[in-house]
Each structure stands twice: as C-alpha cells, then as structure tokens.
Amino acid sequence: MAIPEKIGRYEIKGELGRGGFATVYRGYDPRFEREVAIKFLPPELIHSDPQFRLRFEREAKIIAQLEHPAIVPVYDVGEENNQPYFVMRYMNGGSLSERIKARTFSIEETVKIIEQLAPGLDEAHSKGIVHRDLKPANILFTNKNVPLISDFGIAKFSQGETTGNMTGSAIIGTPAYMAPEQASGDVVDGRADIYALGVILYEMVTGKQPYQADTPLGLAIKHVTEPVPRILEANPNLPPWMEKVISTAMAKNKDDRFASAVELVETIKAFLRGENPDIHSNSTAKISPFNKTATVKKQKSSNGPKRRTPVFAILAGLVVLGIIGAGYLLLSGGRYQIVFDSPTATVISGPATDTPQPIVIQWTATPLAAPVEATATTSSSTGLPVIGGADKIAFVRENDLWTMNVDGSDRKQHTNDGLPKFNLQWLPDGKTILYMTGKTVKTVNIETEVEEVIINYISAEYFEGFSVSPDGKKVAISANRELFIVPYDLLKLRFATRRSALLEMGGCLFNQIPIKDIQWSDDGTRLAMEYIANSSGVFVDAIRVVDVQNCEAISTSNLDDFPPGRFQFAGEITNFDWDGDLLFFLNSNIRNNGFGDMVFYNSFTHKAEPAAPYEGNCCYRDASFSPDGSHVIFAFQDIRLGSTSPTNLYLIAADTTSVPRKLEPLPLPDNFFSNRSDAPQPIMRPVQP
C-alpha cells in the first residue's frame, strides 16, 4: 500500500512499522509543530472483518484510560476516508530491544529503567488492564532516554471486557515473555505482566532470554513446564540474591510472584543497599526429589494457607497432571503453612506451637507409572496382530507404497515407479490403497498388485485433496482450492478432467474459502477442511469442520474453526489427521520438508496441547489415528542428533502423547527410511472381518 501524503491534518514523513493489525507512520502536526506517530488501520482489514475496527477503537480507549507518564500518550483520534487512526507521541529514542542487542546492562542501569516503568504498569493493573505483550520491543525511549510502555493493542480488562472480547479464546502474546498461565490459555491478571517484567530483567542483565527453543510453541511450552533457569549460570558475575528476585518474578504459580512491579523494583533496590528483604514468595523451601529427607521452613500464617487442599487431593492432582508443583498442607486449624515439591510426602512430626519449629517431612519419590505402549494382540480373522483396531499399516518409502503388519513384520513393496505420493487412504474393501501423485489419483490392490487410475485432473493448477467417504459412495475433491462432493463413480471420474465435468456429476460445490485438503467424519455427515484463512491480515492454514448432509449446510454450518481464534500454531499445517469425531493431530514444518511440532486438539473443549512424547523433543510428522482412535502412529526425527538422526515410526496410545518419555520405535531395519526428507505418511487399516 502506498504511503499517504496526509492523514487528517498530519503530514506523513515515512513509515515506522507495519504489522498484521495496523501500520504506524511518522508524521508532523503543523498545529502544535511536533513530530507524532500515527497508527492507521488498513482498509482491507476493515472490509474483511468489522472486529478489527472494534479492536482498534478499543486500544485507543484503553490508552485513553491510562494517562500516566510511563505510558506512551495518545494525542488525537480520528478517521480518514472511513479508516480510523490515532495519534501518539513520537518516540525517537529507539526500543529497549535494540539496546539489549547492543550490550548487557548492569543491575543499577536495569533497575533505573524498570523503576520508571513500574508505576505505569501498576496503574494499568489498578484499572483492571493487563498488557499481555510486555517485552523489550514495546518499551520505547524518548530523545532524553526516558522509557515508556507502548502497544496496548492486545491488552485486556482482567475483570471482563467492557467492549467485548476482541481476541476470542486464542492464546495471545509473545512466547518468549509469556507467563505460564497465559501460555496455557488460562485467565490472566496483572501478575502475567510481572512475569514478563521478570523475563525482561533476566534478559537485560544476561543479554539473553531465559528459555530457548526452535519454535514459538516450543518456547511457550518451556515457560509452562521447565523450572526457572538459574540466572547465575547465565551471568556468574551477578550477586546471589538475583536468584531470589528472578525466581519470584518468574514463579510458575502467579500467587508466588511479586504483588506489583513497584514491589519488584523496591526489592532490588533494598538488596543493592545491602539489606536482606523478605520476599513474599511461598517458595521458601524446596525438597529435592533426590534427597531422602528434608527440613522445611514452617511459616506462621494468621490467615491460614492459601489453599485448603487435602494432601491426597494435591498428590492426585500431581499424578493427573504429570508434573511436580507447589502444594500446601493444612495443620492445626490452618495456623501453619508447609511448602513442598514432592510427588509423595508423609508428615512425621511437627508440633503446633506458637514458636516456629522445623517440621520434618520424610518422603519416598514414586515416579509416575510409565504409559502402557502399544501392545499387539492377535484377534483378526486373518491371524494378524492387532493394535488400535488395525492389523496393517500402509506407508511411503523412497516414493513407493509399502505395507506391513502393525508390529512391523511382513513388509512388502506395492509400487515401483518412484513418483512422489501423498494423501494415502485405505478404501472400504480393506484391500485397496488410494493415493495421489502429481495431478493423478491412483489405487493399488495389495493382493493382486493391480494399479488403476481413478482420475487425472491435468487442467488444475492445484489438485490437493481426494477423500472417499466411509461408505464408499461419495468423494470429496479439492481442485483449484474449490471443494466438490460428487458420487464415487469410477467411470465418470475417469473422464472428469475439468471443472465442468465435475459439476455435471451432480454433487455440491463450495468455493467460499480456498480449500487445500479434506477428511470425512466416521459417519460421513461432516467434513474437516484444511483451508487458507486470513488471520489479522496474515494468511495461515486453518481447519474448519462443516456439516455435509446437504449442499446448503456446507455454507451455513461452521461446527469448529481452528487454530486461529482457538490456539497458537506456528507456521503451516503440513499434516493433519482426524479421528472422525472430536480429536485432531496437527503437524507444523520446522525441518526436513515437514518434520516439526505436533499438537493434539479437542474440538469439544476447544483446547489444544503440545504432543511431544519422545522426551519432550522435536520433531514429528504424519501423525495418524488408529481406526478406533485409541492409538496414533507418527514419524520422528530427534532434533538433538542433527543430521545423524534416523527417521523412525512410533505407535503409541493417543492419550499419552503429552507424556515425555523414551519410546521404542517399530522394529524396522536400520536406516530403513534413508532419505531424511521423505514423508512416511503411515495409515492404519481397520481389522478385516
């Protein structure tokens, strides 16, 4: 878009930045003879979704409520040709992000900057406003080196949105600075910003962020699951008390963080004066899971413990979550508080007196039981081993189609043309595998080895999806990003080489969104469509579930739509699979043409969780449900091994994909998948009667 010469009375001097939501220009205000920054909403966003205008106006309203010297002020709000804009102070001193890249800050320099920001942040919190994207790039300096907080574009009211929720249920923010509750999609308040301030503090005095990951999703996961990194390992020259400050500011439990940004600043200043302030964090005592006994500091509490949760309930919760977290034990009418990090614990002694005395806790670490991995049973009529309602696996190796039993035995090659293949599907007869290659759909019978061409759609620019319904009567086709649902008539399909021929077959046409791939539900009444969505001005892959019981329902129904609006997902969807009812697996692309992160999504709860079963590491691809939905098969390359990592196939229980552990691959010959960029695309055949 060309840069306008004027917006309202403001003369435009250049562009300062452009994002998915708005463009910021450097302008000049002739009335007050000063430079300004003008945030301008592009017209295409207004026309595509009226929510963008509401969100834009909402940001101006939030900032207008936050008149504070530590927050970038808004001078004016207006519209130009029905395009809203607001005018802010021009900050020509650069950002904190730029300064961190240039050098590492001393503690004194750091606290001087944060001290100027803290009152403004606390002021926002006092009004119930949470920034949610506090980071060095959003801390800007004036020409006199005064720092101010900017960009409240995704801020929210912690006690309910007065203008509606403009961001839906999505997890919003920058992963490197996300508090655990924010990354988990839980309710956030001002303590999420305190956590981000702790990350910024860590980064300023060490020169690097506390967590590192290859993907935004992986980074967010570390904020949720990994302990707070020891800052003295990143910068050994720091004083030991910085460990206390960082561990409190970045505490996993928001109740354990500083109550305000000013409290964080005052604590650092007290340490610098040589004092030893009493940090209020509840993490005053920790029991290492590798010690047999430990003495725990007993804290008198006039109000009792923060949670009156029985010990057995805490432990049950730890087992269910598969993590070790802080718990509280109620003793003697709630006068004492014990903090512990242990999967199991037994109180041996601890008199309830008014004089603080140590309470000895003796415990035995009981590791969580290892998830039961896929175990084959023999119950099919053919005598083949069975896992997850399947007895055979079809897959691609070196661009040819193979099959094997679910235990990895009896491997057979069924094609030998060496052409790339994708979208594998077992047809209802259990003997025929359908696949796509180029702009052709073919089948191969694994018993007779007979190959047939189903359709050759050479006139299409895009020919990406071809899925036969479970009853074998219909087929959903994605051609040139349009959806056709027509009878699965082999004779007519053979001659359907152009769009007009598909329309003549008398089915449904849907072209309101650009569709890439499709999958049927188990009962044949719904479709999951992968399509290209416009998310805040950025084109991303998305999945929409629709009713297909009649043609009109495809356009009018939208049973679910994700990831945008539901959860964050990095990059394109290189593969997705549906259990045919509620559950999905999605794969992103990080390396080797499609290996990346794997996400598990429940369309009933609208919740997503990372699926990284191999010791919590990347990278996965081609996750596929077993016929009964109880298991999942996927390919994995261990990113830690770099170019030496083999490609292996793993078959595990679907409900254990969020539990990191060592996995055993299907027993295949060494280096069976020799090309590390190959997509095995395993699919499981339902047990044959």
Architecture overview:
- There is one protein chain.
- The chain has 689 residues and is an alpha+beta fold.
- It is built from 14 helices and 41 strands.
- Strands 1-2-3-4-6-5 form a six-stranded antiparallel sheet, covered by helices on one side. A four-stranded antiparallel sheet has the order 21-20-19-41, with no helix packed on it.
- Strand 8 and strand 9 form a beta hairpin.
- Helix 4 runs antiparallel to helix 6, helix 6 runs antiparallel to helix 9 and helix 9 runs antiparallel to helix 10.
- The protein is globular.
- About 15% of the residues have low confidence.
Query: What is the total tally of β strands?
Result: 41
Class of the largest domain, according to the CATH hierarchy? Answer: Mainly Beta
Mean pLDDT: 80
Number of separate helices: 14
Rg (CA only): 29 Å
- Helical content stands at 10-25%
What would the principal axes of the Cα set say about the shape? globular
CATH topology term of the largest domain: Neuraminidase
Q: Return the CATH architecture of the largest domain.
A: 6 Propeller
Kindly, what is the distance between the CA atoms of the first and last residues, rounded to a whole number of angstroms? 62 Å
CATH H-level superfamily title of the largest domain: TolB, C-terminal domain
- Tally of distinct domains: 4
Beta percentage is: 25-35%
User: What is the SS-derived class?
Assistant: alpha+beta
Low-confidence stretches: 157-170, 281-372
Summarize the biggest pleated sheet: 6 strands, antiparallel
Q: Strand order, biggest sheet? A: 1-2-3-4-6-5
